[in-house]
Amino acid sequence: MASTKSSPLCFPLFLTSMFLFLQPLVSSFSIKEATVQDLQLAFQRNQLTSRQLVEFYIGEIHRLNPLLKAVVEVNPDARSQADKADRERKAKAAGSLGGLHGIPVLLKDNIATKDKMNTTAGSLALLRSIVPRDAGVVTKLRKAGAIILGKASLSEWAHFRGYFTPSGWCARTGQGKNPYNISQDPCGSSSGSAIAVAANLAAVTLGTETDGSILCPSNNNAIVGIKPTVGLTSRAGVIPITPRQDTVGPMCRTVADAVYVLDAIAGSDSNDNATVEASKYIPRGGYKQFLKIDGLKGKRLGLFRNEFFNVGDGSVYAKAFERHFTTLRQRGAVLVENVNASKYLGVYNTDTNYETLAMTAEFKLAINSYLKELVASPVRSLRDLLAFNNKFSKLEKTKEYGQEYFLDAEATNGMGKKEKAAILRLAKMSRDGFQKLMKENKLDALLSPFSSASSLLATGQYPGIIVPAGYDSQGVPFGLCFGGLKGSEPTLIEIAYAFEQATKIRRPPSINNS
């Protein structure tokens, strides 16, 4: 079957001159670091069009992506989508005057789009495959009027291929680079989404997380990442690891931008049963109403210094977090420290990695199901993927970056007794650990640095929001994470937004000016 897919990241030869021509058109408005609200206001004031905005981002991708490796493909239809948005805005069509309408979005390349782009999880094995439909979150983005700008790179197969594959390494693009220090880890697996939005290659981006894949790259690239409650956003059409933990979330430069995206993508989807149950958590009126400057007032925040914030006395991290603890208190939060941490965290200390045990079997079932549903594909099973990687080992460097997770998954035989027991154990650990911690101490959120609490949140299907908190001695960013119980996004948004507004840590990477 002939494919309609575009070739990876193909830029017109005249792009640079076009980009230079466009600069005077947007000179009265600075696009770099502009928020969704800034962009919408510029649209309303006729300072900017969606077409100009798309051209700007394509120009920046053309300029910086050869170094950063953050973008896999640019959507060949992005300009036409922008023109459509401009026409709708001019006609004052319903829904065209706010939100994500006319805003370019980059998607992690494991989120399916039924268009001229590929959906590959960063692997050469899925080039020219054809998906049956848009992913659920893409359908919602299109309905909101967003422009699908392109696909962001990722740690190949969402970092679930080989034990020793570096974060940010993608067979289709190579090694993604941290824009704050290109020699340092961008973290994965949603590395390209984080790099791109940090370096102003897109207005907003989407990532996915199974365990740490939104929180960690957000931490390392000075952006805001929201890992939603599992099922709050649809996973239909997303190349899976495990439906039990997979979630799709915003990765943006500000909390407000991330909330605009969450409002657009949250909700039920008939192709993902988990969304039916989780939709009960969505508040009437959406999430924007929780962007409160005084959102820290009265919030009880759990602080386990020794367990999470043991970052070295006098270190840049320690000094920054102590300042932030003071700020949290000054803004009305109560930091709860007199808690027996071992009572709650001790339940997670086991000799067996139950998460990996369950996930390995779940991945085989989930990926085989995904591949079989494709309209066309060079591979139809995990076994096919293993054969592909072996055949193209030199091209994909599989000798160096192996496929141990694939091999482990292929060796499983469905959900047997030990896998089912592992899932039950994980659920019990979450109930006796994080859930009891939060309820018995009446906490609104648990504080953690970096993405150090990602496994607690992942295995329990809990949400988390990470916000920039500082920069280390090498200029690499780090963040402060707020985690809560299922459906606690409104409270976490209040906390994260108030913290962000009180600190305003984020600064753009110097690479933007190079």
From TrEMBL:
Pfam families: Amidase. Residues 1-28 form the signal peptide. Keywords: Signal. InterPro entries: Amidase_dom (IPR023631), AS_sf (IPR036928). The keyword Signal applies. It comes from the Eukaryota. Residues 53-452 form the Amidase domain. This is Amidase family protein isoform 3. It comes from Hibiscus syriacus.
